[in-house]
Each structure stands twice: as structure tokens, then as C-alpha cells.
Amino acid sequence: MLSYLDRLEADSIDIFREAVAESERPVLLYSIGKDSSVLLHLARKAFYPSPPPFPLLHVDTTWKFREMIAFRDETARRLGLELIVHRNPDCLAEGINPFDHGSARHTDLWKTQGLRQAMEEHRFDLAFGGARRDEEASRAKERVFSFRTAQHRWDPKDQRPELWRLYNTRIGPGESIRVFPLSNWTELDVWRYIQREHIPIVPLYFAAERPVVERDGVLIMVDDDRMPLAEGEVPEPRTVRFRTLGCYPLTGAVPSQARTVPEVVAEMRTATTSERQGRVIDRDRSGSMERKKQEGYF
Amino acid sequence: MTRPNTLPPGRNPEDRADLLRFLTCGSVDDGKSTLIGRLLYESGLLHTDQLDTLAADSRRHGTRGAEPDFALLVDGLAAEREQGITIDVAYRFFTTERRRFIVADTPGHEQYTRNMVTGASTADAAVILLDARKGLLSQTYRHTNLVALLGIRQIVLAVNKLDLVGYSREVFERISAEYRAFAAELGITEVACIPISAVEGTNVVTRSVRTPWYEGQSLLEWLESAEAHDGSPAGPAHLLVQWVNRPDGSFRGFSGRVLGGTLRQGDRVRVRPGEQESVVERIVTMDGELAEAVGGSAVTVVLADELDVSRGSVLAVGTGVEAADAFQAHLVWLDEHEMLPGRRYLAKFGARTVGFTAERPKHRIDVRTQAKEAARTLRSGEICVVNVRIDEPVAYQPYRLDRDLGSFIVLDRVSNRTVGAGMIDFALRRSANVRWQAVTVDKRARTTRNGHRPCVVWFTGLSGAGKSTIADLVERRLHGLGAHTFLLDGDNVRHGLNSDLGFTEADRVENIRRIAEVAALMVQAGLIVLVSFISPFGAERALARGLVEAGEFCEVYVDTPLETAERRDPKGLYARARRGELVNFTGIDSPYEPPAEPELRLDTTRSSPEQAAEEVLGTLRGLGVLDTY
Questions:
Q1: For residue A245, what are the domain limits?
Q2: Over the range B158-171, which residues count as b (16 or more CB within 10 Å of their CB) and which as e?
Q3: Which residues of A touch B77 (CB under 8 A)?
Q4: N or C end of chain B, less CB within 10 A?
Q5: d(CA A183, CA A128)
Q6: Are residues A155 and A211 in the same domain?
Q7: Same structural domain for residues A270 and A291?
Q8: Active site residue B535
Q9: Which ipTM did the prediction report?
Q10: Does pTM top 0.80 for this prediction?
């Protein structure tokens, strides 16, 4: 009998194969985080001995942690995979950033609009993402194969019924499908799988002394000198790690002593807060993830 | 808000493989979302920031005053919060000391039945929720029916809001009895009924003092003891091929999921559809080659032979998996646009998408009464039994044995929407479902090659009249001329094709009907068919004549008087009939109807068999059958 992780793995591989067999131009949305790392590992298993038959796409906001970018380039090189990096040229021209424009506009313009641009430019008809249903209430409502209109819109009231393991992948011109092979995984499953499979992840997930400032109860790591400090604000070295990774000014660190994967797993088991509590962008407004998804955010 | 913690430190319940997938369903406002929120809360799964958010949301959207509104934990969509209803399936995860759970919280609104079916398709058990004040509603019947139809046999009825009827034992027992009687009609004999209050937490996780008269399990205890299975069929292994894996010219593997039992290196497999066979040479994974792959594994298989295997093929050990292109199925319609018999849809079976047509429904199933109703079409949320046809054969197993190979979805060709969900009952092989196949090599082509036209030469007459003797001579002459012939003799056919038939009138009619059909097929094959049968009834001879075209039927009446035939009695049958050892013997106790207008009448009292045979050939020439001879 398969173990629970074996079953999750087999389900995800199934989804990868089905999606690739039924699409013309698939792509994997690679956001460099732990879920992306697991996703990529599963993709390699699904198609072995062939390499994953699709490129990686990173929609870059230019505000990611530097360690993330280094890890991204190293991963693509190590695995010999094609990596497409898309930076929204309008945002580059206008210098969109979370400090002057706010987290909501920053995220919409860089990530949501950036993803739409990249999908259209490369005519991708199917994109894999690492979203999990346990992350957020509107994600719990998402199908494994999620249909998007030619305007990249998700209509939560009109999702395709998804029965058994039979996925409807038929689309018209300009339409696309987002596929979430990790739908039924939890945060703890992801960590236990990383442990079991020895999957490399960005070192930011492990506790280390890092320069942070506390803002609105969130610990922000000062990753470069672009971050404007308020008067009297001095970055302090604290032993912290990250549970999720995004744009560094929008991602809160947590105090932690967990320096290895087993220590992180042990910490997970006694955690009293959820993974996304450090995500500034989820808290903009109640239901904000749903609105972002409707606009085309993955 | 305090956070109860049912997980003792140091235990790792997530290491358990044991998983139960279940769904909750019920009518609007029955309290499903509240129940799930309560389960999550009581099983210690909510984090402090989620509880903070819940408290804030409860003040803004809640219906419970200062108390947390657990429904807001699962109704995460803005439209759901506005309307206070559940629109779409939400999947939630929780873990107790005993097992893991995935719960599909499905909507109660009738217009969202498709989402409820979605949740049920992957579930092992169902929690049917109802409001104790309202009792059984039409949605209770509908959901129970759908759940049963999808193969779920473990059902718990959660009688909710018992706090609002003063925890009345009488109300609970009346509702339970009514529900059990209904479930029994669906063949579900094991139903647990639990009195609960999701709002107050009564009998949700632990049994409550509020219902001292209730001696059964709490809902969570029931869920922890329900039977979980991995959805895989029992029996020999088979692999549904999803993707043909060809990294380079040296490797050709078939990637897919092992369903059923264990697939082993060296196993002999049959490729369905089709009859090709090969042997599993290697089972490949990124973690190394496997000697065997247990059910549920995702692997890549290399076969010993180069066979035609493509996406949608099934590599099957043993004989369980077959292929067919016509089925009787249960069909649930999911779309606002009604299902139209005869319309061309698409359907996805396993990993193959094919053209699909449904016939007019045999009957629609009334979800409340189980009654079979007449139906021309099918509207959203309705269920019917229907014969369906697809453009090419697919590998299948009946749904009751195998959810993976027994299910299909129907897709609209224009809108691309998923419009139907089907479950295969069995494959159809009845002739009514077989269309006449158009073929290129037709009768005309055969006639040109043969140099003669096809024809049925139908010899009729009493037993012992000389039919078979003359027919044999005719065939020898025709054969000598190079014609393509075949002789169907009554006695010989009764040894094989018609060995199940006796000599009653009904059986004699059937005897002739079958022979007429065979003769007509042989005419299609371009042959001159000699049929030597007593064939006593004019109606059946007319039937045989009607199966071929004008000019292709030559009735030869071998006219021998009864006394002559009886005197010859070559098989001794007349003697036995006269002694009463044979009944229904033509001419003795069963009538013979002589043809009124045969193509040829032979008087065997005046001519020899050889002369008679010549007369038959002359008649065939006259009909143009032997034009070039």
C-alpha cells in the first residue's frame, strides 16, 4: 500500500501528465518558493526519463529577495531547463514599487498584469501553478484544472464541474487553463516531502541572523538599499526565517531557530499561526485573493 | 477565543496513510458550512491568525452576534458571504489522531447540483445534513440519490439544529425512521443517524450530555471509523496510458497510473482496445526501476514488443478490461442547456476524447421516488438511463467495479463546457445498436469479379421429395462452371446454428427466419446460395424472398406427392411419424403449403434428378444469373 505522501505524489504526477498530453503550449509558473521547488521535482518525476516538456516562467517584480534570484538561476542551470523571466516593461518604465504605489497596485501591475503579458506573448495555453487549497479560502474553492477566459478571468460562480480524474481541458482561442497539481497538499505535506526527497530550497526558509525592521507587527528583512527607512528605524540582526517568499518588502519573517528541514517540520507541527500570516498582500482587504484571482492572478 | 488542542505533542498523525474523503450535502441553511467550521475548530486545526480573521469577519458578516460564525471559515467567496450561501465546492483538510480527512463542502442550492456531484465523485462517505425543524426536503432525496448513484455506500444523516427543537428525541427518531426507509429503497441498509447541533457543537466531536437518550457515535467518531479505500478497483492490475514517453529513439515507455492490484515485471498484458499482447519488460521511475508497482502508483512501463499503444490505451493483466463503442449508462446532466438525443457531443473516457451521441433516454429517474419516468430530453440536475454510442471503441469496466474506467464526462463541442457525467452500466452488443457498415467491396464489385450475379435458389417440398439430391447436383454443375456457391441444408443447419430449435410452429418459423438471414448475407457476399429446406409455410418463404432484391430469389418447388415421398422414405421418418414417434411432421400431422407461383416446379415423378438439375440451371439462365456462362 502506498504511503500518504506516495499517494499525493502519484496524484500530482497524474495531473502533470494529463495536462501536458492535452495542451499545445504548457508552461510552469516558477515562483522560486518551496511549493515551486516541489512542483518542479514532481514534474521531473512525471516525465522521466524525458525532461519536463515545458519551460519555466518567472514573473519577476524586481523586488524579490536576492537569494531567490540566485537560487532560480542556479536551479535552471543545474537541471538544464529553459527559464523565461518576464518583467512588466510598463512597470520598469514607471518604477512601480510597493513603497510609493502600495502593495495592492504593486502586486496587480507587476504580477497579475505581468503574467497576462507573458502568457499572451508566448501564447501559452496552460500554466502550472503551485497553489494549494489549504492556503486561503478562495483557493479552497478552486478546481485542479481552472479555466480562464481570453481576458484571463476566473469566474468562481461558473467553474467547470470536475468529476473523478476526468479533466476538461478544451479551450477556445485565447483562453487558457491554470493547473494546480498541489491542490490537495497541505503546508506540512510540502515540508515532509521536501524532507523525504531532499529537494533543494531557498536558504531563506531556514533560520539565520538577518537584518530586519518591525512594521505594523510584521518583520521585514531589509534585503537591499532600496528600502526607505523611517526616521529612527534601524535594521536589527535577528534570528528569523520565512514561511513563504514573495517580494521582500511584503513578506514577513518569523522568529525561529529551525535551521534544518527536520527542525522546520518539527516547528510546523506546533505552529499556531497559518503560513500566510506574514503575507501583507493577503490582508489588503477581506476577499482580496479572490479579487486578484478574478483579475488573472494565479 | 481559546483554541482546543486535540493533538497531543509528539504524535505525528500525518504520517498515517489512512485518508477518508467525504462530502457534506444538504439544503440551503441546513448548516453544512457551520458544521465543517466546527469540525476544523474542534480538531484544533485553526491557527490563531485564522481565528482572529474569523472573529473580525464574524462581526462584519456573521449571523451569530458576538459568537464566531464558523460558516465564514468555509464560505470564502465574496458572493457567498453576501448571500450567506455556499456556491461552489470547498475542499478542506483536517487530521485527527486516528486519520486524515479531505472534506468536500458542497452547495445546497439546486442550481449548483453539478458542484455537489463533483464533490461526490471522489468521496468514500457522505454526510447528509438536514434541519430538524424541516425534516426531509427534496434536496435530501436528491442528494441521497446522487450519492448512491455515484457509488457511495456509507451515509450518515446528521440531524442538525436539534437545539432549536429542544433536543427532542421524538423529532430525531421520526426523521431517522423516515430517512432509513428511503435509503433502504436505494439499497443502502447501513445508515447512521446522529442528532447534532453544529452551532453548539453537540455530538460533533464528542457525545453530548444534551442528548442522554442517544447512544451512538459522535459525527467525528463515525468519520474516524468509516471505511476508507483508495478508489482503485479490486482485481488484476491495469495501466491507463496517459502519455507516450519518448525522450529519444532508444526509449519508448508508456506513462500512466497503475489501477487495481500490483503490476509486476514479466506480467503479460493485453492492449485494450485491441487484442495485442506483450510483456512488461521494465517499470521505470526517476527513483529507479521497480520489480513491481502497487495500485495507485504513477509509473512508466516499457514493453517487450513494439506495439501500437497510444494515449488512452489500457495495458491490462487478465481479462477484466474490454473495449466497446456502445453502452448503457446512467447519465447526470449538468448544464443549463438540455441534453438532446442524437446531438453530437464529445465524451472523455479515461485518457481518450471521442465523438458521443446519446439515444432518447430509456427513462428518467425521479430522485424523490425512484420512479422511472418517460423523458425526451434531460435538464440540468436530472438523471437518466440511456444508451450511448461513441465514434471509436474505448477500454472500459462497469462503474460499479472501477470508477476510473467506468466513468465519463460529456463535453459540448461549441461551448467546451462539461455538460454531463456518465457511469457505464454495461457495453451493448445488441443488433439494434449496430449500424450497417458501409463497405467498399460491395455486391456489385463481387458480381463483377465473380462473373455471375448472386441468387438464392430456394428448394421447398416435403421430406423425401428429393430437394437435397437435386440441390447437390445443381451445385456440382454450378461449381464446374466456376460459379461461387454454397449449399445450406436443413438437417446440417439444425446441427449447429439452429440446434436450439425444435419442430413447433414457432420454432419452424424461427428456423426459416435465421436461414433466410444467412442466405441474404451470402447474397451480399456474391454467392449463389442453394437452400434445401422443407419450409412448409408460404409466409416464411415470402420473408426470405423479401430479404433480397428482385431477380435474386428463385423458388423451386420440388413437387413430389405424399405417397411417393412416403414410399421412398429415405430416412425412415415417415414410418416413425406414422407410428406416432415424431410429432409435427409435415404432411402427416403438420400442414404443407405449396407455393402458388414458384419460379420453377419440378415433377419428380416424371423426371430424373439429373434432368431436374438441368431445369434449375435453365431457370437461372432465364433469370440472368448466369449471363456470362
A1: 202-282
A2: bbbbbbebebeeeb
A3: 137-138, 141, 156, 287, 290
A4: N
A5: 11
A6: no
A7: no
A8: yes
A9: 0.89
A10: no
